[in-house]
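LAB NOTEBOOK - FOLDING QUEUE
OPERATOR: T.R.
BATCH SIZE: 2
PURPOSE: Compare the predicted structure-token outputs for two unrelated chains run back to back under identical settings.
PRIORITY: normal
REVIEWER: second-year student, initials M.K.

ITEM 1
FIELD SEQUENCE / FIELD STRUCTURE:
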Amino acid sequence: ILLNMEQEKRERIYTFDFAKGVAILLIIPLHALICQIGKNDPAFFQPLITAIPENVIYLLIPAMILSMWGPIFTLITGANIAYGYLRVYNRNPDDSSAYILRRILSAVMLIFVSRAAVFIFKGGLFTNGFFNIFNYKIRYYADTLDSIALTGIIVPVFILLFLDKSKSIKQKNETGKAVSQKDVKRIYIGMTVITVIWFVFTPVVHALTPYVQDFASKHHLRLLMLVWSKLTAGRFRFFPILGFGYAGAVIGTAIHAKSRYKNIRKYSGIFFLVTLVGFLIWILLKGNPMVNIASDDIPIMMQVLNLGTMTFAMVLVLGYLDYCPPEVRRRRIERTLWIRRFSIVSLTIYVMEFFLAEGVYWVFAQFWDNAVALVNEVPIFIWNFAQIMVFIIVICLIWGLIVKLWEKVDFIFSLEWFMIKAVALFQRDKHARINSHKILYGQ
């Protein structure tokens, strides 16, 4: 008899770990293609893309969609935070505010540790061979870490708005549960409405950008310029990327509420079909859906389709890894160990993968020359497809070896390790550690 997750208590949702691991494994080759081979220059990709025959372009749509799956980290964060927050709230509503404060601290540490690592290792600390601690530059755009950090704060705040704390305490005293089915429905409806509003208003917010920039520049309002740039600039600008986190919160809420898996799958499948139909209509109206994968300007309908496919894919993985009989689940968890291992140091790999790939590219370039050359100002591939694949496979294999060996020392000195130690200082916990063995093997 198949046992759904609602029939047993499970603390860890392995789907989140698996999804993060897969996302990192997609980022490593994608960034190698964009940053090393393409020199992180959108101009390199546009001529190549426009030269592809239209019938081939339609065949490449699935690969193109996967190349734009960076927001999946925000989706996972929204799901994970909603699940964790509701567990805390259900145990004791009075602890909910402390949870949000911890998320704020974690967000600050995430940004600080990641920015510090980039500042040190990407040469910001040293300029022309000289030490310069004041060379830090403010980023007037949002990256994926910004969206992850803010999602971790704003999702529990929104959920708290849909809960009546006084009623929750009364329910806790009467039934032992602070979150009722009515609360769950309000969260479903509320987060869904917020997600729709967020995507609908994204073009409006972007249309206001020239006026806001002009006003901020005229009145020397640098803080306004910084905030607005996070909303509208960069590949992971808050409009629409935070919408992925809100949608993820619906999934996390469903998991916490122990909703039946067939219902979760049904509604996520309907949502996927709606986004797919909308995307196909958009293709008929706009024509060629192919966009420059290195560009920040991904069309909103492409992002909507991304949201639909990511949501449905995560739910399918949820059924494979978490909503299945215990014995089957145990075997599948073991088979996905090598993928989940990457999730533990996803931040470290995200920040540091550039340096490893750059080193490998330098070695390859000594034998094969640069991958792309400019001929009459037009980028031309020097490497063939086989050479590119060998380059990418070597980078992935090196990371696989590093992560496997690193596990033996509990990923000491990773950015995640530094974050845990930094937060532990505030909590006065001298024994805080990653405890990767428990995460990976459940022991």
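ITEM 2
FIELD SEQUENCE / FIELD STRUCTURE:
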Amino acid sequence: MRKVFISSISMQKVNAFKYDSGVYPENNPTAFPITISLENNCQPGDEVAFITIVTHSEGNLAVENYHKFCEQAGSICRGKGARAEFIELAVPARIEAASPRRLYKEIVAKLQDNDEIYADITYGFKYNPIVIFAALNNAYQVRENVDIEEICYGNLYNGSAEIKPEYFDVTSLFYLNSLSGLMGVEGMMGDGGNVLL
């Protein structure tokens, strides 16, 4: 079973913070919240894949941040005795109508049977979390033995003037969405399992 960590890289300067987390009270300071899930779920001998969305354009820091992320994530994997594979999904900064669909297809193409998936929806374009949820839903329903273990979000601001880094587990939203989809299909079914149109 492969452990897959999906995230987007910030296009702006990022700083390392110690995130408060009800799920992971013990974690190291990081500029890349997905590494909190990594350091708490990576075991010796694991095969780990990082599927990372990186925006390529003049004047943003995503590529530079991605290299820093690879260094940190690679260091955690080496320290845990795990093997790491880095898969970059390069996207342009110019958004078109087809951009979310292309990203969805790229993520789906990289997921495999038996994957154990962790995702972070902190950074990236506003449509990235929707695309990630849709790709995970596809893998959960179509692929064999796929587990959506965790979807998290790193929040730095809570409305006050000070920075209060928190790492939230929002996995329940994924399962609520999946359940709603199943209920919709059930509602379309008539007697004998025929679809009512």
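REVIEWER COMMENT (ITEM 2): The longest helix spans residues 62-80.
FOLLOW-UP: none requested
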